[in-house]
Each structure stands twice: as C-alpha cells, then as structure tokens.
Amino acid sequence: MLPIVGLTVGFISTLIGLTTGAMYDGHSMLRVTPQTKRQEDHLRDLSKHQGVSFIGGDPLVGDHSHVIASPQVLDFVLESLKKFETEHLLTNPDVGRSIRSQKVMTRMNGDISWDAYYDLDSINQYLTVQSVGHPDLVTLTTIGKSFEGRDLFLLKINKGSTTKPIIWIDSNIHAREWISSAVGLYLIDQLLNSPDIEIQAYLDDFNFHILPMANPDGFVFSHLTDRFWRKTRSNTSATAINGCRGVDPNRNFDAYWLENDGGSKDPCDLYFAGDAVFTELECIAIAQYLDSIRANLIAYISLHSWGQNVLIPTGRDSTQIPEYNEYIRIANLAAAAHQIPHGMVYTTGSVFDVWHPAPGTSMDWAYLNFPSAKIHLTYEFRDKGQYTVLLPADQILPQCEEFMAGIKVIFDELK
Ligand SMILES: [Zn+2]
Q1: I want to staple 251 with a disulfide (CB 3.0 to 4.6 A). Which of 177, 238, 273, 376 is the partner?
Q2: Where is each Peptidase M14 domain found (predicted)?
Q3: Looking at residues 141-170, what average pLDDT do you find?
Q4: First to last CA, the chain
Q5: Are 262 and 251 in contact (CB under 8 A)?
C-alpha cells in the first residue's frame, strides 16, 4: 500500500501547486522602498495599475513594500521606478514557479511532518489523531464556525487541574501565512510528544489553548485559488456590487478600529477592516471564547508572518503602554533566544513602531479586554522579505526550532 499512498500524495501536491501557481506564472516580485513622499505617491499611483498588486504593506517612506507585477507590465514598472529613482530589488523573477515549488502535502492518517505544508483536512486530521492519542491530556473542541461553515478547532491541553493559568495561542488568522500554523502545530507536537523534561514541565504550570487555524476559509482559498489571499471569505457590503469578498480579520476586532488611518475602508483592499467591528464570525468566536476563559488567561499570543518580529501592543500609535518596559524586556529575552538555534535576528517593539498603524488587531483587543493577563504578543515569523509568505518548506523546521527556543523563555517568565 505504501507506494500507492506516496503516488497519491505526489499527485495531490502537484495538483494544488498548479492550481494556485498558474495565476502568477511569469509574474515578478519586487521589493520597493520609497525614500521621499514623491516616490511614495508614485507607488500609490502604480498600485492602481492593472497587473500590479501590492501584497504587503502600503507604500510608506522608509518602509519596504512588496509588489507583484505581471509579465505584461514588468518593463513599464521597472522603467517607472527608475524614472522616480525609487530603490527597488527584484526578489523573485517567477512567483508562479515559487508557489509550485512549495511542498504541499495531504496526509489523512494524522502523521504530518515539518518539511512540507499541509492542507486543511490534513491539519484537522492531525489534531484529531493527537486528541485520540492523548485522551488524558487533550480536548479537541470547536469554538464556532467560519463564514463558509468550517469548524474552528481548538486544541486544549489540560494536565490535571483545569484551573491553571491558560496560555492562548492562535495562528493563521491571515490565510496566506502558512508558516504560522505549521509552527502552531509544532508547538502542539512538542507539548504532547517531546521527551524534553523542560517542555513537559510546562504542562504542570499551564494549560494551553491553541487555535492552529483561525481562518480556515481563507486558508483553503489560498491553497486552491490565490496563494496571496489574506482575508476571510465573507460577503461584505461590496460583494454584490463588485464581487470583492472578505475582511482582514486582524483589523476587525473592536480595538482602535480604523483609527489613525490604519486598516482600510475599501472592501477590495487587502487590509479591509470590515463594514463594522466584529463582522467576522471567526473574530467573534475568538473573542467570545477568550472572554469565557478570562479568569485564567495569563498570555495571549498570535502567530503571523513575515518580518521576524516579536511585537507588543499597540498598533494604534506611538504611545507606549504602561507595561511597555516589562513587555519589551520579555520580548527581548525571547528574541535573543530565538537567535540561538539558527542565528536569525528578531526585532522587537510595538506593532506601530515596527510596522505601521494596524488598529483592530486581536492582540490589541485582548490587551484592552484582559488586562490581568501578563503578556499579549504578536509574532511575525520568517523571513525579512525575500520569500515573504512563500517561505520554502525547508525552512519550516528551522523556524519551528527557533520559535521553541524563544517561547520557552516566555513560558519561564510567566511562571
Ligand atoms: Zn498576519
């Protein structure tokens, strides 16, 4: 039977790659860095051009943005960047090829590995197998359903008492950030199966509530249709008019919503914050569940990519939270530990300071609503902009290893 399984896996892997890659065949990815307002304005104009899409970060003076250009417009884009003397770097000459080269597997026996990305069914099956294999430790439950009716599976690890402090971790609320759920699953695997007594000891101190797939609809869409899909797949006020669907769920929480020009009011935009706060079922489910465990919540941690950051509240503006020094101290300790296994450098700071205005995030909502928790963090994993969300599969395990090195420091600080 084994060779047949292998063939099946290979076939499915290729099929998925073809489906999502074709859309970007021959497209180039460029990193652009405006240094003047004139260059920034030019990039904003460029973003409206057919065949040009910004996949992360609006153009901002001093910040990197990433642009995908179709083969038809590449020469025009390059000429135009040269004309405005805008700093740019061709980071990927064929995005479609990179998508196809990402190793995507289906494994329905729950036996996944960290040298490939997996589809949603395989991830859910892994969670089921872990819960069946650890009936004394694990409860697999659902905290609600997505817009398209998929379960939002939460894996709870409770050793003994259920009243211990709870560490909450969610991943893949942004659909295309596949590395984030790979790390979420790795953490589950380590907590349940690692022989490391240091890791096992954490189960005596904490209960872990982990939501590996916070946006399953978007995740499936990023596998089958558009690899760069970030949002949910809900209907919005614009869907019937122009077909634009989905909301950036990490701009939809009721925390500084749309303040300071963060997030977008445009339903077709990557960062659309929703027609109102909490329009997204996925966000409501997370908020309601967190509220139900508020008495024991000690840490809120959300996993994302890319950038290599350990980020603290807030995404609103440069005002420092009262706990800033303590949060940064812990983030810096973690960053130093993250660097040890593979030398990767993680920077720390508030979301606003490191990135840009980003109100409406789950972290800021948790920070505002659960002040008794000791820490609220957002992770941005590898890389710093070369592959962006197309992190090659051979970096999954190193990423997981360096995450474990740092998260242990945070767990120690929470004791
Ligand atoms: Zn994200």
Answers
A1: 273
A2: 116-414
A3: 96
A4: 48
A5: yes
